[in-house]
Amino acid sequence: MSAPAQAGVGGGGTRGVRLLGYALAAACLVYVLHDIHPARALRELTNVSWRWVLLGISFDILSYAVQGLRWKLLLKPFGRVRLFRSVRAVYAGLFANMVFPLRPGELMRSYLLSDSEGISFGRVLGSVGVERLIDLVVATAALGIVSQYVELPKRLHRAAVVLGVVALALVFLALAAILYLEYRMGSDPSPEVGPKRLTGKFMPALIGLHAIGTAPSFYSAVLISLGVPFLQILGLWSMMRSYGLGLPFLAGVVVLLVINLGVSLPNAPANVGTYPFFCVLGLSVFGADFGVDKDLAARFSIFAFVMLTLPFMILGFIAMLRSGMSLHAMRERIRQLPSNGRKTA
Prior knowledge:
Layout: H1 15-33, H2 38-45, H3 50-74, H4 83-99, H5 105-117, H6 121-146, H7 154-185, H8 202-214, H9 217-225, H10 227-242, H11 249-263, H12 274-290, H13 294-322, H14 327-344
Helix pairs in contact: 1-12, 3-4, 3-9, 3-10, 3-13, 4-5, 4-13, 5-6, 6-7, 6-8, 6-11, 7-8, 10-11, 11-12, 12-13
């Protein structure tokens, strides 16, 4: 459920985006909480299966540990990355997304791993871009498969088509860049022998992409990538089971895809408002067939949001402290990262 890093975090130019995110989150919360019945929600809590809740939390936590393993493999061409530190950086980045606006977690975790493992910030941040591309391809493929078995709303179907086109275009560009370097400079390109017109900020990025995309560890990273959404789906579906919704496993796939699409929009820290809203929207696909009305979906969305967010607040806070940072230091570092990132890329 992570999103692309946004440059200029903390600057004055992002104020409008931040306000838009807060407005969207507020509107989503109003929709979700409208006509909700607190008494029913409290009564349903007494019937929750906490074994399924713990199982769901475990799956979700494990999914981000797998993301840390994937990250380690993507960075293998640049040096030895310790798994513990890559996972710790992932959790610290999640914590940054939960407490700061404009989702600076990708920048923060890149800085932490770059600092601890001695790999340049630009290379680490580039590997995060490769992660996002892999995730986009996996999500697009999943939406395509799901659409064969579930009648998706027209807007979601259009979003799937747009995602497919974007994913294909980005993959084509990445492959073209790798093949270009192979053709012009051989299998071991370096900035010193690269074409003069691609010097500066473009050549290091292309060389990093080439190193990641041609390394044997890249294929293992792509394969492991399938485990990240699968574990998150298991986590969300376990929450559905704990709440007694009785929905099929396919519902977990659809709802998670809708949530991930929705929270990629500008929103408040920790996806407050947007997560429950898009959870309700995803559940509406199955509501008529399984008796999940808007009120029940809204109550479940709040429950799932709290249960799947609190553990990462705790783990992320611990990861931040283990990285040698305080909340104040993290805030100051996030303000400095955009400019520092350009200097060290």
